[in-house]
Design a protein that fits this description.
Elements lengths: L1 E5 L3 H13 L3 E5 L2 H10 L5 E5 L7 H10 L5 E6 L4 H10 L3 E4 L4 H15 L9 E4 L2 E4 L4 E4 L2 E3 L3 H12 L4 E3 H8 L9 H14 L6 E4 L3 E4 L3
Helix pairs in contact: 2-3, 6-8
Length: 225
């Protein structure tokens, strides 16, 4: 997807951009509302806008309203720290298609972008893909993991770790990359937490857990052969 990320927090913008590009998205950035509007008006083939509600020059709500008023019919995913029903209604009425509440893990953003892409497709909606490596299968829509057809009960964090490893099967992911994928931004977690949850994940996967390989001094890789 061709994305416009509108976020004034430099660290968050940098982390999100890196993760989105790793997932093969093309990402443009804006740090304020006026720049975002100008870029959205000028860009061809824009698929979605990831829009922070708190910007230095204007509210993300105003940005969404101005994009819609200008006839820009692109999917808008709002990033917000506000989680009341009234806040969500205001955001949707302003033109947002979906929202993610801060703090969030990258996998939630990725899943909501996939949902927006499916909604935008003409014709019958395609089912969410099943990620698979050997006997391990992860059904994104059902939030279900199986090993040789046997259901494995994973915690949300274990599920997110496995999803990240499956999406990058055969590639080595550092502990920091796995933290970005599976833990909410702004939550203080050390890389040691990754080691602990990989241990839990391997145990629950049983014999298939050996496919989660340790790359000494770097991180982890899921064997895809």
């Amino acid at each position: 997807m061709h994305l416009l990320l509108v976020e004034d927090d430099e660290r968050l913008a940098r982390s999100l951009t890196r993760l989105l590009e790793e997932d093969r998205h093309v990402v443009e950035q804006a740090a304020d509302g006026q720049t975002a509007i100008e870029l959205a008006q000028a860009m061809d083939g824009l698929d979605a806008v990831i829009l922070d509600i708190g910007l230095p020059d204007m509210s993300g709500l105003d940005v969404a309203r101005r994009l819609r008023a200008g006839g820009i019919d692109v999917s808008i995913l709002m990033l917000t720290a506000r989680d009341t029903v009234s806040d969500r209604v205001v955001g949707l009425d302003a033109g947002a298609d979906d929202y993610v509440v801060k703090p969030f893990a990258y996998q939630e953003v990725a899943a909501r972008l996939r949902a927006l892409a499916r909604r935008a497709e003409p014709g019958p909606r395609r089912p969410a893909p099943v990620l698979q490596a050997g006997p391990i299968a992860l059904d994104e829509a059902a939030r279900r993991v199986t090993v040789d057809g046997r259901t494995v009960d994973l915690s949300p964090r274990e599920f997110s770790l496995l999803e990240a490893l499956l999406r990058h099967a055969g590639q080595t992911l550092t502990r920091d990359q796995l933290l970005d994928h599976a833990w909410p931004f702004s939550v203080a977690v050390t890389p040691n937490a990754v080691d602990a949850y990989v241990h839990y994940l391997r145990t629950k996967l049983g014999g298939a857990g050996s496919r989660v390989e340790t790359v000494r001094g770097v991180g982890y890789r899921l064997a895809d052969g």
